[in-house]
Amino acid sequence: MQTNFTPAQLADPHVAESEAILRKCVHCGFCTATCPTYVTLGDELDSPRGRIYLIKDMLENGRAADTETVTHIDRCLSCLACTTTCPSGVDYMHLVDHARVHIEKTYKRPLKDRLARAVLAQVLPYPSRFRFALKAAALGRPFASVLKRVAALKTFGVMLDLAPKAVPEPSITAVPGTHAASGKRVGRVALLNGCAQPVLKPEINEATIRLLTRLGIEVVVSPGEGCCGALVHHMGREGQALAAARRNVDAWLSVAEEGGLDAIIITASGCGTTIKDYCHMLRLDPAYAEKAARVSAMAKDITEYLATLDLPAQDPRGMTVTYHSACSMQHGQKITMAPKQLLKQAGFVVRDPAEGHLCCGSAGTYNILQPEISEKLKARKVKNLAATKPDVIATGNIGCITQIATGTSIPIVHTVELLDWAYGGAKPAGL
After folding, report:
1. What is the mean predicted confidence (pLDDT) over 74-87?
2. Rounded to an integer, what distance in angstroms lies between the CA atom of residue 425 and that of residue 418?
3. Taking Cα atoms as reference points, which of 280, 326, 274, 278 lies closest to residue 303?
4. Which label site among 110, 119, 193, 236 has the fewest CB atoms less than 10 Å from its CB?
5. pLDDT for 106 beyond 90
6. 83 near 74, Cβ under 8 Å?
């Protein structure tokens, strides 16, 4: 793609990076075939190629974002299926990240949108606030349908619909501390506690700690760590996202300096994609660039790490598992085979759904901010999953778990819960 940025514009490293990304696009349109919003809506501007044109026009002309550009960028799930498909290696992720920061800085959203986004940014990344909000949602749930009929309050009605009816009690595994290996210690890792996941499904990290410690791995929940920053990062709130990244970098490197770390284990693939990108997010920060690169290099999805431990094959369990590969796992981190191979090795029959490359519609806060598109994608995903006739659905991302669970009665659990069960742990509560 030909670009016409001025030397003054290219002096900005963010613009220079976006210009280099834009130049790689050859307008081939391969991305449209795998883009969930284009497949759903059929609008060229809701395809990666269309959004690239909008971003180019906005950045090249040095203008503030307008309503049309914001509408189509907001509809992007950041599923990154387009990057998997693109034959030219267009780095769409960092291009749309830059566009969202530019939108946040130059576009004044309607009051109702500003309010909804502010609530999400100030609640979801903080476990105690999120837990309180979920418990309070029980009082507001009867009014959800009324709120959804009022345009200015629709988002809050959607939030009430998505809130679980019961909130698990806080888990001891969420408290900073060290979980000793059983028997001889053969490794030491830090485990991301996270923000939403330990509130919604604390059993995921509980299963992870049980499994790893039985395998001789010492697990540390680091003091000072918190939300990875993904939720606000995808809203264009750059300052808040970078602050989260710096906090976590400091927390994990402190633990590494005290006793060494083989890896930083992440059990939510959406978080994993962001943490592996800390090296890019903080590349221009002289105080953190090198430290962030060290953290990103140590970041491993739980299945990515387990695949290095040579687990023994288990007897067949007579249970069929359909594996849903979260977008952040298959497109963001390029982890496609390890989870399925681990499940097969653990004795499960593993099936793949049709259209496995398409997003389920969760995508962080997308199912709250773009509920109509999200619902269509969920229905499509659930139909494909159900067609495989599984006993259980497994996936590696809390957002996908909560999204898909609202559309099917088939049990859905985290992959690590099944692996923990197969290697001596408790049967997942969802089964």
Report:
1. 97
2. 9
3. 326
4. 110
5. yes
6. no
pLDDT band at 402 (very low <50, low <70, confident <90, very high): very high
242 vs 341: CA distance, rounded Å: 35
Q: Which two tokens stand for residue 82?
A: 């387009």
Q: Which amino acid is at 37?
A: T
Q: In the predicted model, what is the mean pLDDT of residues 252-277?
A: 97
> If DSSP codes are grouped into helix, strand and coil, which group holds residue 396?
coil
Per-residue pLDDT at 391 exceeds 90? yes
Number of H helices, E strands in the chain: 25, 9
Strand pairing of 217-221 and 263-266? unpaired
Give the span between the Cα atoms of 333 and 397, in whole angstroms: 12
Contact 201, 215 (CB under 8 A): no
The CA distance from 49 to 405, in Å, is 32
b or e along 394-404 (b: 16 or more beta carbons within 10 Å of the residue's beta carbon)? Answer: bbbbbbbbbbb
Task: Report the run of H or E that residue 220 belongs to, with start and end.
Answer: strand 217-221
Query: pLDDT-based confidence at 356, cuts 50/70/90?
Result: very high
Q: Three-state SS for 218?
A: strand
Structure confidence at residue 145 as a pLDDT band (50, 70, 90):
confident
The residues pairing with 188 across neighbouring beta strands, listed in sequence order, are 218
Length of the chain: 431
> pTM for this structure?
0.95
Q: Give CA separation, 76 vs 72, 265, 301, 354, 410, in Å.
A: 7, 28, 24, 22, 28
CA–CA dist 69, 242 (Å, integer): 25
Q: What is the mean pLDDT of residues 55-78?
A: 97
